[in-house]
Amino acid sequence: MPFPSSSQAFASSKCGYADVTRNWLYEDDLKMRYRTAFNGNGYGVHPSVTSFTMHAEIHDRAGRVIRDLRTLGRDYPPDENEWQYRWTGVAGAKVCKPGYHRYGAAIDFTKFVWGPDQWVDMAVHGKDSRRRLRRRYLAVIATCRKHFGTVLHCHNDPDGSHWNHIHVDRGRQAVALDWDYGTDVTIIQWAARDLAGFSEMAIDGDFGPQTREGFALLRDEFDTDVDPTDRSVDGRAWMDLIARHAMADENAGKYKMD
Ligand SMILES: [Zn+2]
User: Distance (Å, rounded) from C-alpha 168 to C-alpha 91?
Assistant: First the structure.
């Protein structure tokens, strides 16, 4: 369903719309856990399974993110073993504050866990010095963008709060990519840098000459004429291809577009 415009969403902190309360995403055994603190290494601490309240559509879409991350772990793991998805760290969903959280149309992700040494933490790995971990974070944001139009993260952070979580919302539907949106440009920039070796790429959301060059490089490496700004299905195909390479810790060109 279409949610109200951004100006309406930010005009009030009053909660609205019906909601559901769940402690799982996609399947009953894939639980959510609340992040209560950070440990000495800056990683989120998630002591227990927790229920969150949100709009039914957001529960469904967030479930599709988890479904896709589960598939990526099985089919495109970063090592020779299949990764089995376990649980998701969350900082909040329906919250009576200005923005899409007040409709339950947003959720804040903090951690995705496949196994004991198989996870990605949103407070650390987006700017990690280790490319394999930045790639895993990229796999997550590309997967989020398949199902949500707005994805805020450590390199797309208009209010300075997203260094420690990924915010997704349905204020914008999962439409075709649009180079006027930081959500869409930053993912392409990140993929050009960490999948296609464009090491000097700035991840700033600005679709200027450098980003044009990076996008052309990615298109060549991916060997595709599909335009992600054409139709929503084309945007999703790009996000899916980026996510597969990023999850598997492979350079662009290893896999083909479906
Ligand atoms: Zn949020």
Answer: 12
The structure tokens listed for 248 are 């598997």
E-assigned strands of the chain?
20-22, 24-25, 27-34, 37-38, 44-45, 52-54, 87-92, 106-115, 118-121, 150-152, 166-169
Tokens of 37: 């603190």
Cα gap 250→197, rounded to integer Å: 11
Q: Against a cut of 0.90, is the pTM above it? A: yes
The dihedral of CA 28, 60, 98, 42: what is its sign?
Answer: positive
Q: What is the CA(34)–ligand 1 centre distance, in A? A: 14
Two structure tokens written together for 4: 């109200």
Say how far apart CA 165 and CA 154 lie, in whole Å. 8
Alpha-carbon separation of residue 22 from 49, 94, 173, 175 (angstroms): 10, 12, 22, 27
Query: How many Cβ atoms sit within 10 Å of the Cβ of residue 23?
Result: 16
Structure confidence by residue, pLDDT tens digits, 98-127: 999 999 999 999 999 999 999 999 999 999
Ligand 1 center from residue 220 Cα (angstroms): 35
Using the mean position of ligand 1's atoms as its centre, give its distance from the Cα of residue 218 in Å. Answer: 30
Is the sign of the CA dihedral 76, 77, 78, 82 positive or negative? negative
Query: In the prediction, which pLDDT does 127 show?
Result: 97
| Cα 69 from Cα 114, distance rounded (Å) | 9
Q: How far is it, in rounded angstroms, from Cα 256 to Cα 252?
A: 9
| Rounded distance from Cα 231 to ligand 1 centre (Å) | 27
